[in-house]
Every structure is written in C-alpha cells, then in structure tokens.
Amino acid sequence: MIQDLPATTDRQQSMKNQALSIAMSLSQTRWLLFAQEESSVSKPLVVIVVFWLTINFISFGLFAPRNATVIVTLFLCAIAVSGAIFLILEMYNPFGGLIHISSTPIRNVLAQMAK
User: Fold this and answer.
1) Angle at 101 between CA 50 and CA 104, to 5 degrees
2) What is the pTM of this model?
3) Cβ(102)–Cβ(109) under 8 Å?
4) pLDDT digits (tens), the chain, 115 positions
C-alpha cells in the first residue's frame, strides 16, 4: 500500500522511502518475535546440566563434615545455581513467564502509527 502512494515532490518521495523502511523494519521484527516464540534451549541439555550439578553437590556433601556450616553453604550454593539456570531459561521468553518486559511501549508506538 505504501508503494502505491503517489510521490510527486522530492519531500514526498523521501517520506515514502522512510515509510517503506519503517514498514520493512516492523515486518522483520514481527517475524523475529514469531520465530523466537519457541524456546531454543534443548530439554536434554537442561536435564544433563541439572543431573551433572546434582552429582557435583552430592559428591561435595559426601566428603564434607556433617555440620551446620557445610549444610547451609551447600544449600545456598544449590539455590544460587538453580537461580542462575532459572534466569537463563527466563531470558528466552521475554514477554512471558515470571520475569517479563512490558509490551506497553511498543503498543503505544503502534497506536501512534495507526493515527
């Protein structure tokens, strides 16, 4: 539809070219968001990493003396590692999940463009 607009002056031609550029950019962004809807993290990789970390923490616990300091330290380390894995997995879905970015700014821009 933009290409069908008449452009008689240089200014109109420049604005038409700019509108085409913006439309193409929006289209590419839309397709990129559509393509990124699926998680690209393979489930077997996550399972293997979690299994490997479990074995590591079990082996640390086997050879450590049984006292409160060791137990609390291992627990805090396990929480930190699981939090890191959780954050990495959350980054693959920016518009959903527990931690998400707001889509309000892009909706405001689209509303202004529709006017």
Assistant:
1) 160
2) 0.54
3) no
4) 878 888 888 998 898 889 889 988 988 888 877 766 666 778 888 899 999 998 988 888 888 888 999 889 989 999 999 999 998 888 877 777 788 787 788 888 888 887 7
- Strand segments, DSSP code E, in the chain are none
The pair of three-digit structure tokens given for residue 28, joined into one six-digit string:
């590419």
Burial state string for 75-103 with b = 16 or more CB within 10 A and e = fewer than 16: eeebeeeeeeeeeeeeeeeeeeeeeeeee
DSSP class of 41 = S
Q: How far apart are CA 22 and CA 31, in angstroms?
A: 14
Residue type at position 9? T
Dihedral (C-alpha) 45, 51, 55, 56: value to the nearest 10 degrees? 40
> Based on C-alpha coordinates, what's the Rg of the chain?
25
Closest CA to 58 of 50, 68, 69: 50
